[in-house]
Amino acid sequence: MNEEMNVSDAINYRRSVRIFDKKNIDSEKVKNCLVNASLAANSSNLQLWEFVHIENKKILKKLSNVCFNQNAAKTANQMVVVVVRKDLWKERAKWNIKQINKQSIESDITIKRLNQAKTYYNKIIPTLYFDVFGFLGILKNLIFQTIGLFRPTMRQVTRTDTRIVAHKSAALAAQNFMISMAGFGYDTCPMEGSDTLRVKKILNLNKKAEISMVIACGLRTEKGIYGKQLRVPFDEIYTYI
Length: 241
Fold this sequence. Notes:
- The chain has a 4-stranded antiparallel beta sheet, with helices on both faces.
- The protein has 241 residues and is α+β, with helices and mostly antiparallel strands.
- Helix content is 50%, strand content 11%.
- Helix 1 (7-13) crosses helix 8 (159-183).
- The chain has a domain at 7-87 and 162-237: 3-Layer(aba) Sandwich (NADH Oxidase), CATH 3.40.109.
């Protein structure tokens, strides 16, 4: 395929492909799709993600094994592992402050907006993300739930809550990636079925890293799509108010 699809066509083209053709796909195009992934909406612009792009055949074989040798893994031409790095929240908060300071010099950001941003990253983000073995999360939860009796407040403040937030952001990035791949006529299959500890060891990832998903990539075969796409009727999931 020479021309990229528009967004709607790419969304409709995208399927979870279980068997890939042996033809190679362009790793530079895959990389470009990962650039698009990095532009995804994410919580507080912390971007607590990393993307590991694998084309090495020996590594692909090892990953296939720890993905239980499912067909999508065995036949993948390349793989992308979406990694959550919640542990980098301090570093990314500081990075945001640095960028905001730079913008304030280069553009007409108001002092009020600049101070609000600094307060957010210097005070609110640490309040949400700092924890000690989950104990502070319990205390924060009690405090915020009490505040919530009197006015609207944040309620997702525990260690588990912020972990979920980080994985949601990574999933948004993964979807950007898969739609971008579809736009090139490339196919993907997000796989949750994997031994994530062994995936981390194979890729030599930081011990605090978490695997969000492993995405097999390639070109579909006729047998690669197992059937018609099934979705619950839209009226059952849609409410207009």
